[in-house]
Amino acid sequence: MDSPVSVLGQKRLFSNRDLWRLIWPLMIEQFLAITLGMADIIMVGSLGEAAVSGVSLVDNIQILIVNIFAALATGGAVVCAQYIGSRQDEMVSKTAKQLIYAVVLVAVVTMTVCLLTRRPLLSLIFGRIDADVMDNAQTYFMLMMFGLPSIALYNGCAALFRAQGNSRISMYIAALVNVINIGGNAFFIYGLHWGVAGVAVPTLAARTVAAGVLLFLLYRNKPYKGAPAINIKGILAVKPDFRIIKHILAIGIPNGLENSMFQVGKILVITLIATFGTGAIAANAAANTIASFEVLPAAAIGLAMLTVVGQCIGAGRLEEAKYFTRKLTGMGYAGMLILNVPLLFFARRIISVYGLSADTTDLAWKMLMCHGICGMLVWPLSFTLPNALRASNDAKFTMVVSLLSMWFIRVGLSYVFAWYTGLGALCSWVAMVIDWVARSGAFVVRFRRGKWQHKTLI
């Protein structure tokens, strides 16, 4: 059992109970988010493979855009966590207000550009795809873009609560989103027969409600488990504070570039997969959704890593930051092992709920097995560990490693394997595993050298 006392004789910032209280709501929140995506695909699956393909293609663009908001939210959360650790209570709320302004501004600009250029944008990205797939994609894309401000607010507010250590709030909101979204899908798809629009409208409504509730809760926020309140009272009277914004962007810009270019690379790979036909697109969409469950524990622990390591760095407890990084990464491995063994055993049965053809189901199963088995070996080092580096303002390093690995290994090898091997649509999944191995090696070396511990923001 771990000692609650650090090597310096101080009580550790986080006990085992504190970690569990932070992590389990994050796991449930991640589960709810993935379930929502899975429910969308399953429900739209009743409309045919063209609808599934259209929605999945647009989802890749949407993820690219949402990653920008998530990056800004991560920047704000890291700054807040470091201020919480250093006990600078007033700066915590100031940072929260600046983050809200930043994400809303970026969301409105992005929404406007995407709506004005939606038709040529989809054609440029996906090229020549079946006409019915493109029709579904255009309808879904237009409706989803109207929800960008709500998505931005949701990401920003939820990240602030996590920085405070209060992960239950975002879990409850995720549950609310699922109820509205899945219930709305059933009504609009099966009741009103709205097609892919029946998936988009409930999503838009759910995210708008969620953003409103989170803003209200932040307005009334109080101290939580020893952490100061993160309060946005008087936000309409606040002017831009470029010193705080600079701190947020110090994490947000590298993280945003990393996430965005990572997703651009995935879109290029999706474009490659699309050349193998509608069945390959549908198999890839189904496998990707289920694969999200495979990494759920490590992904949730990665979110906790930002809070825990950020507060340790802010408090000047560098050895504790290293200790908790090792501990949380190990917990990520344990969680993935416990979840993946039964999930892979029942993989074919799970895929069958999508109602895909036999060949498409078989392809999705191969993709899922590749992802799950290899993920248990290297995924936490590739994606959980680097959040410790980000939490200490070493985001530029993670950005450089991720971009080089993504573009030269995952994207590059996907095309090489597609052209010169008989892997077919599996080409990108094999290249993805090689990408994981490369980035995990770089992150482990960086962590062991310790330079990341001395890059504090505040």
UniProtKB/TrEMBL annotation:
Keyword entries, A-Z = Antiport, Cell membrane, Ion transport, Membrane, Transmembrane, Transmembrane helix, Transport
Would you name any one GO CC term? plasma membrane
Task: Name its cellular compartments.
Answer: Cell membrane
Q: Name one GO molecular function term.
A: antiporter activity
Question: What CDD domains does the record point to?
Answer: MATE_NorM_like
Q: How does it sit in the membrane?
A: Multi-pass membrane protein
Record Pfam families: MatE (PF01554)
According to the record, the segments passing through the membrane are: 22-43, 63-86, 98-118, 138-161, 173-193, 199-219, 267-287, 299-318, 330-351, 363-385, 423-445
Q: Which InterPro entries match?
A: MATE_fam (IPR002528), MATE_MdtK (IPR050222), MdtK-like (IPR048279)
The alphabetized list of GO BP terms reads: monoatomic ion transport
Provide the protein name. Answer: Multidrug-efflux transporter
Which organism is the protein's source?
Answer: Treponema brennaborense (strain DSM 12168 / CIP 105900 / DD5/3)
